[in-house]
Design brief:
The chain is about 20% helix and about 35% strand. By secondary structure, it is of the alpha+beta class.
Length: about 375
């Protein structure tokens, strides 16, 4: 049976279209994907992301444990966060995730909801024999986010924490709407924003405080539909679409989170080091439709009469007015400007390999 987040009743009362997603009943849209998408691009949106998974990693061996488990380096300063992939021995991706370093010996791992059980089993199995204590805090943790160019102005109404002092991919402990929270300047939209990690019992207080002020701030609730179009416009990958066990970080253009030069021995290192040296047979690229039609997940890509790849994510980009997508193509065809064709409803439509991100004028604060 699908579970409900602590904010399910709020979504229902707002008339959201609610559907199963990753084992939860989640709001897909309220006023409509286009309207919600553009609200985030122009002003701000409020998100319920309480379906995400949260694992605490604590103890003297926490840093070494995460360095073994993840491809990116865990040795960031307390108060900072980092994005990483977690790989199988064959280099395939278990998940992509964000890690917050809370103190010298405490980290918070935030994993994809669809992978929660799989990730917990994987992390738990590798913790044996390590000087760490891991705790699954997913059920007791809720996540509410404000994203958009007006995010800081709006969020500052509900906290005394100096938000301007929090750089991109950093966090502070503070209070939001009078509730204890981890306040993180992270997000998945390409816009500036804050994610508030609170206890499940405090989620409604935070959500209600923001919504009660919505007439003044003009913030709107945003569902998972617009969250997907927002992330795709800026080229962020989605596990299960663009990356999975059959893809490696190097194929997915995530080599920047694979710290081979550090010398640390993480799971999958041997395969990824070899792939780095020899090159990959395929590569994830950005795609823009040159003709009419919208590319979607599973759309085949052609060069002449040869099938050379497949679209992994695709949509009509609301802020750009064109169809864009991500997909894997043969490495020889991955160069920017390469013309290809997509088979849409039995017809071939011209597409071009383009640089990512597609949308480049977002308000995301630079590190």
């Amino acid at each position: 049976m699908d579970r409900k987040t602590p904010l399910y009743d709020r979504h229902s009362a707002l008339g959201a279209r609610i559907e199963p997603f990753a084992g939860y009943l989640m709001p897909i849209q309220y006023s409509g994907i286009m309207a919600e998408h553009m609200a985030v691009r122009k002003k701000a949106g409020l998100f319920d992301l309480s379906h995400m998974g949260e694992f605490m990693v604590e103890g003297p061996g926490a840093l070494d444990f995460l360095d073994m488990l993840l491809t990116n380096n865990a040795d960031v300063e307390p108060g900072k966060a980092y994005y990483s992939t977690m790989c199988y021995p064959d280099g395939g991706i278990v998940d992509d995730l964000i890690v917050y370093r809370l103190s010298e010996s405490e980290y918070l791992m935030v994993v994809n909801a669809a992978n929660l059980d799989k990730d917990w089993a994987w992390v738990s199995s590798h913790a044996r024999g390590c000087d760490v204590r891991i705790t699954n805090r997913s059920d007791e943790t809720a996540l509410v986010a404000i994203q958009g160019p007006e995010a800081q102005k709006i969020a500052s109404k509900f906290t005394d924490t100096d938000l301007d002092s929090i750089p991109y991919y950093a966090h502070r402990s503070g209070a939001v709407a009078g509730r204890s929270a981890i306040i993180a300047r992270t997000g998945y939209t390409g816009e500036d924003g804050f994610e508030f990690y609170v206890s499940s019992g405090d989620a409604t207080a935070v959500w209600d405080a923001v919504m009660d002020d919505s007439a003044s701030s003009r913030i709107v609730p945003v569902g998972l539909g617009a969250r997907d179009t927002l992330r795709l416009e800026v080229g962020y990958v989605l596990y299960g679409n663009d990356i999975d066990h059959t893809t490696t970080p190097l194929e997915a253009k995530l080599g920047w989170v694979v710290k081979l030069a550090s010398g640390k021995d993480f799971i999958g290192r041997e395969v990824l080091a070899r792939q780095k040296e020899e090159g990959t047979a395929r590569s994830l690229v950005g795609l823009r439709v040159e003709g009419r039609g919208v590319i979607r997940h599973g759309t085949d890509l052609y060069s002449g009469e040869s099938r050379v790849g497949v679209v992994t994510s695709g949509t009509m980009a609301p802020a750009l007015g064109v169809s864009v997508g991500l997909g894997y193509v043969e490495k020889a065809l991955a160069k920017t400007g390469t013309p290809l064709e997509a088979e849409i409803r039995g017809s071939r439509v011209p597409v071009k390999v383009v640089k990512i991100p597609f949308y480049t004028t977002g308000s995301r604060r630079q590190a």
